[in-house]
Amino acid sequence: MTSNEPAAHDAVVLAGGGARRLGGADKPGVRVGGRALLDRVLGACADARTTVVVADPRPTARPVRWAREDPPGAGPVAALDAGLRHTAADDVLVLSADLPFLAADTVRRLLTALRAGAAEGVLLTDADGREQPLVAAYRTAALRRELAVLTAGEGGLTGLPLRRLTAGLDLTRVPDPVASFDCDTWDDIAAARARIREHDHVLDEWISAVKDELGIDLDVDTGALLDLARDAAHGVARPAAPLTTFLVGYAAAQAQGGPEAVAEAARKAAALALRWAEEADQEKAEQGKAEQGKAEQGKAEQGKAEQQQADKPGGSGPDAG
């Protein structure tokens, strides 16, 4: 690892709870915005060197390592211990599988805060100021130390609450009522589904969902693509918008490029759309001039005809009658 590369970290995602307040439903598989809650969390921690999910194996949007506490259902501390056994990095993210609004930038913020200070862990607090130990970054050695203390003192980890583990750690707390929002009830699920459909969020949510569905890991300038779609719709025809953006993506793929290839293809297509629109504007202007000329010629001919009629004997000129 060079000095310019970020330090490696691992992630442990706890996804094996009973979901009693959801009537025993498969909470990690509940979909919010078209994606399973577990997949949303896995997307947020995709930069982890190793991601361990503590639960029975299931299909996921990206590959993970699976682990299970012994016995299954022994509680979050036992589950965390089982997950940590498969990690090796100095820092580890510890996450629950029911965080619909956890994002990669929040994960990076937790890790940055952990590495910038002397604390043994950095966790989020929710809208009521309550600690969320399952939305946190920890020093792996500190977690293993406290797990060993609990194992020796309690004779095992089964049934222990997480606060027994975190009580022995030096922690930093970061308020974030959105990223720390978890889904414990069906009302929580409904609130999460409603929020992602709000105007300010729906486009980003949709793009993220599509990229997950298609297995695309590519950040592009969506603003530039939207501008291109607008120009194509207004300057060419409305159906040109989706077709043009598709062709831009295809051209970038053919060039085997990343965001830069998309940007270059979008620039070329946008320039073409503007030339197309200018051409159409010129045609309209020329057509307008031609119509105006015809109108003026018609008026002149009508005036000439009226004058000729007035000049005839017995015509309706000023001396007639």
Judging from the principal axes of the Cα atoms, what is the shape? Answer: elongated
Low-confidence sequence ranges: none
Structural class: alpha/beta
Order of helices and strands: EEEHEEHEHEEHHEHHHHH
Strands of the widest sheet, in order across it, are 5-4-1-6-8-7-9
**What is the number of beta strands?**
9
Largest sheet entry: 7 strands, mixed
Radius of gyration: 33 Å
**Cα-to-Cα separation, first versus last residue:** 109 Å
Oligomer: single chain
Strand content: 5-15%
- What's the tally of helices? 10
Overview features:
321 residues; alpha/beta; seven-stranded mixed sheet; two-stranded antiparallel ribbon; 10 helices; 50% helix
Describe what you observe in this structure:
This protein has 321 residues and is of the alpha/beta class. Helix content is 50%, strand content 13%. It has ten helices and nine strands. The strands form two sheets. The protein has a seven-stranded mixed β-sheet with strand order 5-4-1-6-8-7-9, sandwiched between helices. Strands 2-3 form a two-stranded antiparallel sheet. α8 crosses α9. The chain is elongated, with a radius of gyration of 33 Å. The model has no long low-confidence stretch (mean pLDDT 85).
In brief:
This protein is of the alpha/beta class. The protein is built from ten helices and nine strands.
